[in-house]
Amino acid sequence: MNASPPRVLTQTDFDRFAALSRDDNPIHCDPAFARATHFGATVAHGMFLFSLLCARMARQQPEPVLPVGQTLMFPLPTFVADGVEAVLVPQEAHGGNLLGLETSIRCVQRGGQPLREGEQPVTALGEALLMTDAHAGALALLPPLAEAGQAAPSGDAALYHLRRGQQAEAGRAFSTPDIDEYVSLTGDASPFHADPAFARRRGFDGAVVPLPLLAGMFSDLLGTRLPGRGTGWMKQSLRLCSAARLGEPLTASVRIVRLRADKDLVNLASLVTGSDGRVVVQGESLVLVRNLEDKGEARAA
Predict the structure, then answer these.
(1) Most buried by CB count within 10 Å: which residue of 73, 102, 203, 256?
(2) pTM for the complete prediction?
(3) In this predicted model, what pLDDT tens digit does every residue of 29-39 receive, in sequence order?
(4) What is the DSSP string of the chain?
(5) Is domain 2-288 classified as CATH 3.90.45.10?
């Protein structure tokens, strides 16, 4: 087992990631709002925790690796003043140039006090898929995720203002300052996004936008548009299908595929596409809508 040195999280970290991802969901950024939820305090963005895992991947592997897939569940919240470790455990080889890891975020300090080993809760848990000796053409050979909701029961017709089939989308282009802030905030200095010359030698058109930033486009939509402010991420699966370049106009979309009114849960399919219509990231999400700020009429198209 390999763990990073503990990092003590701050509200400034949460606010910086909110500005970077555009997800200013009040469960992350508004202490007064968060105190009134079942969390009781502001909690870390799921994709911020994913970025800390990516930083650990970049430091631990002997050669540069490109994260191309990740599944994360969030069994417990991660709070301000929590000291956390990113833990990576190698899995059996996937074959070819793909490497699998068990990934987790473990809380080793709470409220400034160290926790004993048997009392250290896991706040994020999942599996990562890394590409070794990565180059631009290899991404096209990865198998896609199964379509979200394909085999799931239909669930309920409505939950609050939400309906199956509702969609929301947003566009943006990432810049060099975005990458600089990402590296500064997370410590993920992989040469695939921090060294444009290295990325070009691997066949990419310059620096590659990191997967946590691309998935942050989903975080923005889920936490501010659909389902809306107050949404909590329970589980996320991601697959990088092609590289996004800096300055490229990207479009992210989320679509409700299942509602579970008895548990306040919503399943969504998610997609990032490039300026030429190609799929950049495919994903699926499970979110909790118990704390929605607005449970009235829908605003998403």
Answers:
(1) 256
(2) 0.93
(3) 999 999 999 99
(4) -EEPPPEE--HHHHHHHHHHH----HHHH-HHHHHTSSS-S-B--HHHHHHHHHHHHHHHSSS-EEEEEEEEE-SS--BTT-EEEEEEEE-S--STTEEEEEEEEEEEEETTEEPPGGG--EEEEEEEEEEET--GGGGGGSPPPPPTTSSS--B-SEETTEETT-EEEEEE---HHHHHHHHHHH----HHHH-HHHHHHTT-SSSBPPHHHHHHHHHHHHHHTSS-TT-EEEEEEEEE-S--BTT--EEEEEEEEEEETTTTEEEEEEEEE-TTS-EEEEEEEEEE-TT-S--SS----
(5) no
